[in-house]
């Protein structure tokens, strides 16, 4: 599959088969993704790959804490609730997903169940927790670098038949993730990538988010045409 086709076909996967993902496949994915560019070749990233009992413990405790009303405790600074056009785009994709899943606007139990799925990392069999070296904070450069690694992981996984979703909900309680995965204090937990083989019978997996026309966010400067 060529790169353009790979990018166009990739989508977030919110329903996974429970088949285990071989460690060798994950190693191969990371081997590709680690070629991502980083500022001055600093390679500030670390990847903690969870499965089995440790991942189940993170899932269970994260969900229990959030349902009980615990405050979000993430290492990175949150922007808070989205507003304006960003909120509009968030609502638009939610409408698509709920429509595909047959979740009515007033069906609070099913909407709550969807939120809980996010807290459980959509029940994926593998979670890659991405961190960076704390000594590089504050600053957005290492965040940019980690984003490049993250997207490389997602594309390399898709090329090998694996689906993924970049999932901040799954690590709302970063303190729990740090404890269970034994992540050192000198690393900042940024996000996680839930990963597994897609369940093609899960309706939400067919949903594709809309993208703005280039004219809405791209400016060409100095071109004759």
Automatic annotation (TrEMBL):
Pfam families: Nitroreductase (PF00881). The keyword Oxidoreductase applies. InterPro entries: Nitroreductase, Nitroreductase-like. The keyword Ribonucleoprotein does not apply. It comes from the Bacteria. Residues 8-197 form the Nitroreductase domain. Keywords: Oxidoreductase. Belongs to the nitroreductase family. This is Oxidoreductase.
